[in-house]
């Protein structure tokens, strides 16, 4: 029997949350109803007992980058600071379906990060060593071992940039991004947290340097604490306060093919020829690559960026040459100078910032929620997000993941 | 793909250009006088407006000269520097 793509997926659910009118006041207001905002609210409620809380979303719930990412989850980052945070997220992912009692289609199908040059090989082996010292599963594979795991990958030597090997993280994988957001949203709604959509924050109320609330398109809302989780739109919010952040907003494009039979068993990422590819549960090939070069808040990018990434994909996966592009889209990602996030306190009392996740925020979702909730509840960073403070740009203690993280940014 | 107006070569495809980010970021006159915070500002902080943005482009595959345009970061509408008139989309 030919398999109908998507036949084994759960049906589309009924409404999982209400859409309440915003109240006049909350203990905590979270600005941004994407994955990070929802996860943060969830752990504020579960770990810290805060439920008099609203998540404000300017559009529809999880319709920004949470709807636009390529759903890859991994924790094989080079530096200790990143490894700590992403591996914490990975451990939470591994229990999240049970925790939320909701199917997230979390599939630990592994990730291959390809090496195409001697320098790639050296860097990759170094990263495997660093990962292992941090308790993260990582192996170095030669080209034959890569071919065993992913037979559709062209590992012959006649490529312009042959596959010389790869790092392999077996616990990496993908999850269904919408379900992740819906799982958190359903749990929040049941705990009495208000999820307010079509509610854009336009400014802040303050007494001196103390934030006391937000101004929104649905009225003013007083708040004990305000936590930003607005990704590419963060600068627009902080500009209202004259608070400068070292982030630049760029389009990041992704695309899918039509639904295909399952052909791709894992996740493949190539830094050097620059494309990353997995196959969604439903059957689409999901592809992404780098940002468009210029600053932009338009959720679209240029076709030549897509063309370049498809060239790389077809070189690595010759069988994809017959596939068709079904949809392309872009999200607005906030990129920092060291390609690491900014997460913690701000110069304003009762205002917290989580931004700068650039091209890699989805995989961190539960880890961000856990640590950001701690930061907000205790007015002090969790040890895992302490290195990702805003002060590091002045002290020089950067977490330089440019080129180190197994993917170009 | 944007059509970018090079002041010397005329409008050319975006693929011929290299992006240089925010325009008018001067090197500090007295760099040794700067505090760490001020130095961080110069190195790492750039404006990130939603709307009009003055930015540098280099015509890398053409005349190789730098120039400034003003672009709307939401619509990609490009205006010649110091002009409010849209010249291309």
UniProtKB/TrEMBL annotation, chain A:
Q: Where in the cell is it found?
A: Cytoplasm
User: PROSITE patterns, per this entry?
Assistant: RHODANESE_3 (PS50206)
- Cofactor(s) the protein requires to work: FAD; FMN
Q: What's its catalytic activity? A: sarcosine + (6S)-5,6,7,8-tetrahydrofolate + O2 = (6R)-5,10-methylene-5,6,7,8-tetrahydrofolate + glycine + H2O2; sarcosine + O2 + H2O = formaldehyde + glycine + H2O2
Its lineage reads: Bacteria, Bacillati, Actinomycetota, Actinomycetes, Pseudonocardiales
Main location (coarse class): cytoplasm
Q: Which family does it belong to?
A: Belongs to the SoxB family.
Which cellular component appears as one GO term in the record?
Answer: cytoplasm
Annotated protein name in UniProt: Sarcosine oxidase subunit beta
Q: Give the species.
A: Prauserella isguenensis
GO MF, one annotated term: sarcosine oxidase activity
Annotated GO biological process: tetrahydrofolate metabolic process
Known EC number: 1.5.3.24
* Keyword Cytoplasm listed: yes
Top-rank EC class of the record's enzyme: oxidoreductase
* Matches recorded under NCBIfam families: soxB
UniProt keyword list: Cytoplasm, FAD, Flavoprotein, FMN, Nucleotide-binding, Oxidoreductase
UniProtKB/TrEMBL annotation, chain B:
In terms of Gene3D superfamilies, this protein maps to: Folate-binding superfamily (3.30.2270.10)
Query: Has UniProt tagged this entry with the keyword Oxidoreductase?
Result: yes
Q: Does the keyword Nucleotidyltransferase apply?
A: no
Question: Could you tell me one molecular function GO term of this UniProt entry?
Answer: sarcosine oxidase activity
What Pfam families does UniProt report for this protein, alphabetically?
SoxD
Per the UniProt entry, what are the Gene Ontology biological process annotations, in alphabetical order?
tetrahydrofolate metabolic process
- InterPro entries from the xrefs? SoxD (IPR006279), SoxD_sf (IPR038561)
EC class (word) = oxidoreductase
Keywords (alphabetical) are:
Oxidoreductase
Q: What is its EC number?
A: 1.5.3.1
Put simply, this protein is called Sarcosine oxidase subunit alpha/sarcosine oxidase subunit delta
């Amino acid at each position: 029997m030919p398999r109908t793509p998507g036949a084994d997926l759960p049906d589309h659910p009924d409404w999982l949350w209400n859409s309440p009118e915003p109240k006049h006041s909350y203990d905590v207001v979270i600005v941004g109803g994407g994955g990070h905002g929802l996860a943060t609210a969830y752990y504020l409620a579960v770990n810290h007992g805060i439920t008099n809380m609203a998540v404000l979303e300017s559009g529809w719930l999880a319709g920004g980058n949470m709807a636009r990412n390529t759903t890859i989850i991994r924790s094989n980052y080079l530096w200790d600071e990143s490894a700590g945070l992403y591996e914490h997220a990975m451990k939470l992912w591994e229990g999240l379906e049970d925790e939320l009692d909701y199917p997230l289609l979390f599939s630990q199908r592994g990730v291959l990060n390809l090496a195409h040059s001697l320098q790639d090989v050296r860097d990759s082996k170094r990263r495997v060593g660093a990962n292992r010292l941090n308790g993260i599963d990582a192996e170095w594979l030669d080209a034959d071992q890569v071919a065993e795991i992913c037979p559709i990958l062209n590992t012959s030597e006649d490529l312009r940039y042959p596959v010389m090997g790869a790092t392999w993280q077996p616990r990496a994988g993908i999850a269904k991004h919408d379900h992740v957001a819906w799982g958190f949203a359903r749990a929040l709604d049941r705990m009495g947290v208000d999820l307010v959509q079509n509610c854009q924050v336009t400014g802040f109320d303050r007494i001196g340097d103390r934030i006391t609330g937000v101004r929104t398109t649905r009225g003013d809302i007083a708040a004990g604490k305000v936590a930003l989780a607005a990704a590419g739109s963060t600068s627009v919010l902080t500009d209202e306060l004259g608070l400068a952040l070292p982030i630049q907003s760029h389009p990041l494009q992704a695309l899918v093919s039509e639904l295909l039979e399952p052909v791709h068993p894992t996740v493949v990422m190539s830094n050097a020829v620059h494309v990353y590819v997995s196959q969604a549960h439903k059957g689409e090939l999901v592809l992404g690559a780098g940002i468009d070069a210029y600053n932009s808040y338009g959720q679209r990018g240029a076709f030549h960026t897509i063309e370049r990434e498809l060239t790389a994909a077809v070189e690595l996966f010759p069988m994809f040459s017959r596939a068709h592009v079904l949809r392309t889209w872009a999200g607005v990602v906030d990129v920092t100078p060291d390609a690491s996030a900014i997460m913690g306190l701000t110069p304003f009392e009762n205002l917290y910032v989580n931004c700068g996740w650039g091209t890699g925020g989805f995989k961190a979702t539960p880890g961000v929620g856990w640590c950001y909730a701690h930061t907000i509840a205790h007015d002090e960073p969790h040890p895992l997000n302490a290195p990702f403070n805003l002060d590091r740009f002045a002290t020089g203690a950067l977490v330089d993941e440019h080129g180190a993280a197994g993917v170009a940014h | 793909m944007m059509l970018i107006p090079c002041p010397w070569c005329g409008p050319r495809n975006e693929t011929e250009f290299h992006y240089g980010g925010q325009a008018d970021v001067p090197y500090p006159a007295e760099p040794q006088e700067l505090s760490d915070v001020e130095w961080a500002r110069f190195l790492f902080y750039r404006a990130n407006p939603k709307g009009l943005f003055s930015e540098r482009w280099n015509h890398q595959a053409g005349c190789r000269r730098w120039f400034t345009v003003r672009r709307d970061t939401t619509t990609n509408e490009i205006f010649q520097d110091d002009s409010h008139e849209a010249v291309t989309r």
